[in-house]
Amino acid sequence: MADERRLTQQRADGATLVIFYVLALLVVPARFTIAFVPITLPPALFVALCLAVLWFAAHLVDHLGLAKGRNTVRTLLGVYVMLHLATYAIATRRYLPPDELSVSDSALIRIVAMSALAVFVIDAIRSGERLSRMLKVMVGCLTFGAFIGLIQFGLGLDLASYVTLPGLRVQDNGYSALESRSIFFRPAGTVNHPIEFGLVCVLGVPFAAHFVFQAKDRGEPVGRWWTALSLLSLMAILSLSRTAIIGLVVTGVVLGVLLPRHRGLPLLGVGAVFLGGASAVVPGLFGTVTSMFSNIEDDPSFQGRTKDYDGAWLEIAKHPWLGRGFGTFLPSKYTILDNQYLLTMIENGYLGLLAYALLFLGGIFAALRARSLSKDENVRGLAVCLVGAMLTSALGAATFDSLSFSVATGMTFLLIGTSGALLRIARQEARQLVSSAR
Questions:
Q1: Most buried of 6, 37, 73, 365 (most Cβ within 10 A)?
Q2: 296-307: per-residue pLDDT in tens?
Q3: Mean pLDDT of the chain
Q4: CA-CA distance, 5 to 117, in Å (whole number)?
Q5: Under a CB-based contact definition with an 8 Å cutoff, are residues 30 and 37 in contact?
């Protein structure tokens, strides 16, 4: 009996290791860093570096189950890292002030670790069920963060500030956990900023909707997934962020267009009813949200985002192709640029911008290709979710400097890797179907 139980239990695999990363990224408050190292090293980044070492070691042998062979997304990640290394080499050949050099060193480590995480996801998660398991944990962790944000919004109480963890210290990032807009508190959950919080909540919405449909099809309880979908959607709105609102609209359009009609249309209807209910329960919410867009030209926040664009183009002209160095355009020293594409052109040049944009395009292509190859409804549904998430993340990068925020960056590269893994799974399934037919 014991032997039979061992055979039926799921062994730890690549998905299990990625789940550790998800927990470190989304449950541990983003202000925490590891105390006993001389650089700013969040726990999630440390886990990503460990996964990078494991990926390299596992590819030296053939019996650990890592996928071999080419993958479109993995190739684009390799190009992205090589361009970052070229930028770093050119930037450090000339004189860099000590503060810029220090940030450039840590920023390069972060990008390499995030790219390695995405590659690990691509090669280590080999089945649709294990990919779904990882994404279910991700949705659960995002829902936990959304609950923390709900307490912040409703009570003005930041539960994350009461957390202490051994071996970790709080890093002052210059952001307040409880900002305000109009008459409302703007929650940040377990992340650094309300804009980042709104974005990561939106990224979880399509997957929560997918698991509602999946549980319904399998005759499983759907209550927890409806709760996750409702809470993530609500907190995306209550973050009072234009990024989140635009992301919700984009997600709704993608799901409505790409999902089967019997799923997409009801989901849009539920979303409209939910928005009306949220406006009724929270007086003044609808007016605050609409004013963020109706008076956008007179909004000091919007004016502050765009006033520095002329100066940014002057910086781009100094180093047009590979930039001045990733992480060297310090907001405390120069200015804050709430546009990651513009900041990428300054720090990584036009070639770096092309590589960055290709990551999103490659993720979307991989998801759509997986959807066309697969007959499995779970794989096809996840592909649609990834298209919505990639578009949301790509548009979000135009509204704030997303690579400067650890959780937004971690989620983006996690989902890029998930797109590559899904494409590999769909191709393997297609090959098996061809072999069976023969």
A1: 73
A2: 666 666 566 666
A3: 88
A4: 32
A5: no
* pLDDT tens-digit series, residues 195-210: 999 999 999 999 999 9
pLDDT at 337: 86
Q: Which residues pair with 184 in a beta bridge?
A: 181
CB 271 within 8 A of CB 252: yes
Instruction: Give the CB-side neighbour count of residue 151, counting CA atoms within 13 A.
Output: 13
Report how far apart, in Å, the C-alpha atoms of 142 and of each of 81, 138, 232, 274 are.
28, 6, 8, 19
Cα–Cα distance, 31 to 196 (Å, whole number): 13
Q: How far apart are CA 380 and CA 275, in angstroms?
A: 27
Residue among 249, 156, 264, 263 nearest 198 (CA):
249
- Torsion angles phi and psi, residue 35, rounded to 5: -80, -30
Six-digit token string for 417: 């890797």
pLDDT digits (tens, 9 = 90+) for 212-237: 999 999 999 999 999 999 999 999 99
Reported for 43-49, long-range contacts at CB under 8 A and 24+ positions apart, including other chains, are: 43/168, 44/406, 44/407, 44/410, 45/109, 45/110, 45/113, 45/406, 47/20, 47/21, 48/21, 48/113, 48/114, 48/116, 48/117, 48/410, 49/109, 49/113, 49/116
Q: Residue 32: helix, strand or coil by DSSP? A: strand
184-186 vs 168-170, strand pairing mode: unpaired
CA atoms within 13 A on the CB side of 331: 13
**Lowest-pLDDT choice from 40-44, 167-171, 190-194, 268-272:** 268-272
**Axis-axis angle for helices 194-218, 406-437 (nearest 10):** 30
Alpha-carbon distance values, 361 to 73, 111, 395, 420 (Å): 9, 18, 12, 12
